[in-house]
Amino acid sequence: MADGGYTNLRQQAVLPADESPITLSTTQKALWLPAKTLIPAGIWKPGKIIKLRAFGKATTDGTAGNYVFEIGLGAGDAPAALVTGATVAGTVSQTNIAWCAEAYAECRSFGTAGVLRLWGLWEPAVALVASTLGPYLMPGSAPADISFDFTVGTNALTFQCQRSGAGVWTMTTTSIIFKEEN
Question: Among the four 5, 17, 59, 167, which has the fewest Cβ within 10 Å?
Fold first, then answer.
């Protein structure tokens, strides 16, 4: 059993229907309401790892642009604890193209100034990006530890995405798996 009495976070993230489409912009946008993957206070301890996996679909208009996919731990859009992948060119005029992503959040030391490490990958269908190079890893270079306050219960683990350009690109999350690994 986890320190806070929680044995599995999955029950918090059940999606009875697809989430509403998120219109991407030039800043990070959470791909679902962060309350769905909120991490309760008291669950963290050194060595604790939480896993997040999500599946969704993306739609692009005819305007060129780039994606940057991110893993965030915090409240809302563009949280301070964030790791990003590389900038990749998106493919225009696509509808409901699948993507899948997986992330891990690891408590390396606990406290109000604890150490957090985030890592994962984004797996877009080939039609969604203008490159077949893969995998798309986050962070895009060596992992960097982040100072983080593990004592609060208002932080959510989310996938975030941003795009460059002026067109309307959306992402819709259709499934979430959110659980403790240990």
Answer: 17
Sign of CA dihedral 180, 35, 162, 115: negative
Q: CB under 8 Å to 125, separation ≥6 — which residues?
A: 97, 98, 99
**Using H for helix, E for strand and C for coil, what is the string for the chain?**
CCCCCCCCCHHHHCCCCCCCCEECCCCCEECCCHHHHEECCCCCCCCCEEEEEEEEEEECCCCCCEEEEEEEEECCCCCCEEEECCCEEECCCCCCEEEEEEEEEEEEECCCCEEEEEEEEEEECHHHECCCCCCEEECCCCCCCEEECCCCCCEEEEEEEEECCCCCCEEEEEEEEEEECC
Q: What domains can you pick out in the chain, each with its CATH number?
A: 10-180 (2.60.120)
* C-alpha radius of gyration, the chain, whole number: 16
**What torsion, rounded to 10 degrees, do the Cα atoms 155, 134, 145, 22 define?**
-20
Q: What is the mean pLDDT of each run of 10 residues along the chain (182 residues)?
A: 48 79 96 91 91 96 93 91 90 96 95 93 92 84 86 92 91 94 88
Q: What is the pTM of this model?
A: 0.88
Distance CA 104, CA 112 (A): 20
